[in-house]
Amino acid sequence: MYAGKRVILASQSPRRRQLLEQAGIPFEVMVSDAEETFPPEMPAAEVPVHIARLKANAVSASFGKEDVVIAADTIVLLDKKIIGKPVDRTDAINILSSLSGRIHEVITGVVIRFNGSEDAFSQTTEVHFKPLSREQIEYYVDHYQPFDKAGAYAIQEWIGAVGIDRINGCFYNVMGLPISQVAERLTRL
Ligand SMILES: Cc1cn([C@H]2C[C@H](O)[C@@H](COP(=O)(O)OP(=O)(O)OP(=O)(O)O)O2)c(=O)[nH]c1=O
């Protein structure tokens, strides 16, 4: 269905690879070394697309206009504050303690480049965390090492099964790629 165009995923995220595979989209990977920075005055909702664009920029020079480049970035937003990846165990425990019993947003920004033009969009999913005990939080951090995950958790792991009441929005968006939107936009190219 997607045959004919060369698709490049500018991401080292195993989750993003898994989701493109699940959607049956053939692709190659080129990891981008973009520095994930943004202007301090930028509204949080615009940050994921901004960073996804930096990731796309970092690989675009290696490919032709007729190739499709996909880049994405995921952030967790609590009380309008961006929560990134934890720097260490203590940080991960503190982040999960702050998410416990609360609702937060996960925003994934996506940039798709093809034929000299760009399709950029973001999706938001609301995630409802149950109150977690200190023991549960430490168990999760020590067994799952969520240091490469925005917000120090992965919804597709143990914590998602026992600690998340419900979500409002796309599950895969929380995992790092709103895959049905991506697939739809690819078919439109
Ligand atoms: C919130 C959440 C994040 N994540 C992951 C998705 C992303 O891989 C990561 C967010 O970090 P990103 O900076 O978006 O992506 P990355 O560094 O893993 O990969 P790259 O920059 O090369 O594209 O957190 C989950 O797997 N499950 C979740 O529930």
> What's the structural domain tally?
1
Parts with pLDDT < 50 across at least 5 consecutive residues: none
List the secondary-structure elements in sequence, H or E. EHEHEEHEEHHEHH
Q: What summary fits the major beta sheet? A: 7 strands, mixed
Shape: globular
**N→C terminal distance:** 12 Å
| Secondary structure tally: strands | 7
The CATH architecture can be named as: Alpha-Beta Complex
Mean pLDDT: 96
- Total helix count? 7
Helix content: 25-40%
Radius of gyration: 17 Å
In the CATH scheme, the class would be Alpha Beta
CATH topology heading: Maf protein
Helix- and strand-based class?
alpha/beta
Ligands bound, unique: thymidine-5'-triphosphate
Binned strand content: 25-35%
GO biological process, one term: nucleotide metabolic process
Family: Belongs to the Maf family. YhdE subfamily.
EC number: 3.6.1.9
Function: Nucleoside triphosphate pyrophosphatase that hydrolyzes dTTP and UTP. May have a dual role in cell division arrest and in preventing the incorporation of modified nucleotides into cellular nucleic acids.
Write the layout of secondary structure elements.
Elements: E1 7-9, H1 14-22, E2 28-29, H2 47-60, E3 68-78, E4 81-83, H3 89-99, E5 103-114, E6 117-129, H4 134-144, H5 158-163, E7 164-168, H6 171-175, H7 179-188
Parallel strand pairs: 1-2, 1-3
Antiparallel strand pairs: 3-4, 3-5, 5-6, 6-7
Helix pairs in contact: 3-4
Thymidine-5'-triphosphate is lined by residues 11-13, 15, 31, 55, 72-74, 76, 106, 148-151, 153-156, 174-176.
In short:
The protein has seven helices and seven strands, in the order E-H-E-H-E-E-H-E-E-H-H-E-H-H. The protein is an alpha/beta fold and 189 residues long.
